[in-house]
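User: Okay, second chain of the day. Same drill as before: sequence in, structure tokens out.
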Amino acid sequence: MGDPLRPVDGIVWDLDGTLIDSDLYIVLNYVHMYRQFRPGYFPHLREIINFSGPTLEEVFGREFPKVPFETLWEEFRSFSKKYENKYCRIYDGEQACLKTIKAAGIKQCIVSNKRHDPIMDNLKAFGLEQYMDLVLGLDDVGKGKPDPTGVIRALEMMKTAPGRTIIIGDSLQDIQAGQRAGIKTGLVTWSLKGLPNIVSDHEFDTYREIEEYLTDGKPSARDKEFASK
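Assistant: Same drill. Structure tokens below.
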């Protein structure tokens, strides 16, 4: 059992849009993909940004149904290796938050609909791997969020109780996966894709708010606003 004065013993982080600001990279990679496989066609910008969340299998199957998945994956991954970390960044206050959380003894893991190796590329590029106790990609789990399999496995491996664990993410898939696994849910509000139409237990506008909640139980500004209604 962890510190009873803090609200959680474990965190399940999402990656894209939560730990990594990848909006620009995602748009650039899909523009590249459309040029290669659907020349002359581009969807709306907000639609492309929302490709962060679902699995590549889902997006590729819908956007490029006539092209074999492995062909698409190789092209997508080739662009990623060259440009992903160049066009991604981390958020203000993030590194300080992760450092404080780790020092407090709270377990941290990532459950992402990305594959394991690309996740590790991101973490190493931005010096974030040192804060993570566990990383689970789609190829580690077999089922992507909103399926709760990855979250449930993270609970088992971190040895944290559902009521003492929170998932923090930016998408509908993250919140639904957490709810289905029976853990607390936290939604970050800074994603360009906008807020999903779903109620989470907590909402955070900044990493400072996440840090204060996780270490001291201090409610965020949005949590206070909801509580007053």
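The longest strand covers residues 107-111.

User: Thanks, on to the next one.
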